[in-house]
Amino acid sequence: MSAFDTVQITWTFPRDNSITPCLTSHNCSNEIIKTLQDLRLEFLSVLPKQKGTISSRGILITSPKLHEQLSNDAWNSDMVVDGSNETISKLFGDWYFDRRSVQVVDKYPCPYNCSSNLVQNDNNGDDKGRSSSMFNYGLSVLILLLNL
């Protein structure tokens, strides 16, 4: 879990031991999963609408634990974000280098201990199904949101 996720979850839930298993081992109760899904929906509902196609404006919101992508092999893998059919590194690179506006909201609201929402790309544009357990994380929000 990234530091951002830990802070987000810690400040969303009461400070008691009920959240500890979710923070330490991604073993979240059904109540916590529901709260995380509701938080995601509320977050998405308050995002400002994009105006124009200026490349420096964009959003990339994902449910898997992509905040840690820079520090693991998944960043350079052929795993794609559902709803875009593009890898996280391609999406980020296009936004960062101002090649195009990136506006991707992952369609799967899967919080911790759900199945993954990254899929294996077979280079033909087809999915090979859900990816390995290293992606079985949830509600992480990577936002590339500038000048909205």
Task: Write up what this structure looks like.
It is a single chain. The protein is α+β, with helices and mostly antiparallel strands and 148 residues long. The chain has one domain. It contains 4 helices and 6 strands, in the order H-H-H-E-E-E-H-E-E-E. The strands form 2 sheets. Strands 3-2-5-6 form a 4-stranded antiparallel beta sheet. It is globular and about 45 Å long. The model is unreliable at 115-148 (pLDDT under 50).
Pick out its properties.
EC 3.1.1.-; two-stranded parallel sheet; single chain; 6 strands; globular; Pectin acetylesterase; alpha+beta; hydrolase; cell wall biogenesis/degradation; four-stranded antiparallel β-sheet; 28% helix; secreted
Summarize the structure.
This protein is of the alpha+beta class and 148 residues long. The protein has helices at 3-12, 20-25, 30-46, 88-96, and strands at residues 59-61, 79-81, 86-87, 103-105, 118-121, 127-130.
> Helix coverage percent of residues?
25-40%
SSE order: HHHEEEHEEE
Number of helices: 4
Give the mean pLDDT: 62
Structure summary, number of beta strands: 6
Structural class: alpha+beta
Our count of domains comes out at: 1
- Spatial extent as radius of gyration: 15 Å
Largest sheet: 4 strands, antiparallel
Spatial sequence of strands, sheet with the most strands: 3-2-5-6
The fraction of residues assigned to DSSP E strands is: 5-15%
The separation of the N and C termini measures 27 Å
Low-pLDDT stretches are 115-148
Query: What characteristic shape results from the CA principal axes?
Result: globular
